[in-house]
Design goal:
The complex is a heterodimer of chains A (251) and B (83).
Chain A (H helix, E strand, L loop, with lengths): L5 E7 L6 H9 L4 E7 L10 E4 L19 H11 L3 E5 L1 H9 L5 E3 L7 E9 L5 H4 L7 E7 L3 E3 L2 H9 L3 E6 L18 E5 L5 E4 L15 H14 L17
Parallel strand pairs in A: 1-2, 1-3, 3-4, 4-11
Antiparallel strand pairs in A: 5-8, 6-7, 6-9, 9-10, 10-11
Chain B lengths: L1 E10 L6 H12 L12 E8 L3 H16 L5 E9 L1
Antiparallel strand pairs in B: 1-2, 1-3
The chains are: A alpha/beta (251), B alpha+beta (83).
Chain lengths: 251, 83
């Protein structure tokens, strides 16, 4: 058990709308103190982990995440990540990380040209990163998505680097772990749902683990992801949840 | 000196453009099946103050490269004229 409080900063941009869900999900750890970080601030308030939440920062004008990237707080986030600080982006947060250059690639319009809000299944990739370290290999997790621009894309050279450095953290799959186009909701290249950087201190994913982190909601698969991240980074014990109603499918 | 930049931003040719594809499909319904391969991008106009056209070009290029377009998915081109 850590002796001191773990500080998590959740960045709030104009148009962020999953910030409170993320705060609730992370506040469930008794050892964690969560602060909101307004995008105009220049101080990460000694955060041990910075989270960029989902939403529609700046109305998704120009491109998702393109304007948020230039918010004052992002200069601090980029600096923090450069020094090895841990940064986690979900959905719009993932888009901001790609636009910032903290993660490779980009998120394009879904091939269906529709906003998709539904559950998906994702498979953790064994890649020696904190976010997947404690997840059962081969076990698909049910985590919801809600995005119009989530089709991960990288050119062939970047994709080769992502493969070589084992930077993929999650891929879309079926309930039984099968990877095929029909289980890929947005047309993401190689079914990629989330990646990390080479140093493994910046993580981004389109699915929302914070929306599947409470037994009351009937699904705690997302909690397993948050547990892996918090346990591995900060040695926090996994939260014991009533998983009676939760999905637990082993392929 | 002030210059007006007219900027075109287009998705890379190799990338699927779902908007363009949907619009291509609707051309048939309009009775214009001759129209295909619709690609949809953005047009941005802006005013830039600079000492010379060369300097204005450098500034607009930086704006395009770092903010207005994402080189991973988009190409840009622009023209400049005196305001």
């Amino acid at each position: 058990m850590p002796n001191s409080v773990i500080r998590v900063g959740v960045v709030v941009f104009p148009g962020s709308n999953c910030d409170q869900d993320m705060i609730d999900a992370l506040s469930a750890y008794p050892e964690v103190s969560v602060n909101k970080l307004w995008h105009k601030e220049h101080d990460l308030q000694q955060s041990d982990l910075v989270v960029l939440p989902g939403g529609f920062s700046f109305g998704d004008y120009l491109r998702s995440g393109a304007i948020a990237r230039f918010s004052p707080i992002m200069r601090e986030v980029i600096d923090f990540a450069g020094k090895g600080g841990n940064v986690f982006g979900v959905c719009n947060g993932f888009q901001v990380l790609c636009e910032s250059g903290l993660l490779p690639g980009a998120l394009l319009h879904n091939t269906s040209n529709r906003f998709i809000c539904r559950n998906t299944w994702i498979m953790p990739e064994p890649n020696n990163s904190a976010i997947t370290a404690k997840l059962a290999p081969g076990q698909a997790l049910q985590v919801p998505i809600a995005h119009g621009e989530g089709r991960f894309y990288a050119n062939e050279d970047t994709l080769r680097m992502i493969r070589d450095e084992q930077q993929v953290i999650f891929r879309y799959c079926s309930e039984y772990g099968e990877k095929a186009d029909e289980y890929n909701p947005n047309g993401a290249i190689e079914h990629i749902a989330g990646i990390c950087n080479q140093k493994r201190n910046v993580f981004g994913m389109m699915p929302h683990p914070e929306r599947a982190a409470d037994a009351v909601l009937g699904n705690t698969d997302g909690r397993l992801i948050l547990d892996s991240l918090m346990h591995t980074l900060f040695d926090l014990p996994a939260l014991v949840l009533d998983t009676h109603n939760a999905h637990s499918v082993v392929s | 000196m002030k210059f007006i930049a007219e900027i075109d931003i287009m998705p890379h040719k190799a990338l699927l453009d779902p908007q363009g594809k949907a619009v291509s499909g609707s051309m048939k319904n309009l009775g214009l099946p001759e129209i295909t391969d619709v690609r949809i991008g953005k047009h941005i106009s802006l005013l830039v103050e600079a000492e010379s056209e060369t300097e204005a070009k450098t500034k607009v290029e930086k704006a395009c490269r770092e903010l207005l377009a994402n080189p991973i998915m988009e190409d840009f081109s622009f023209s400049l004229k005196s305001a």
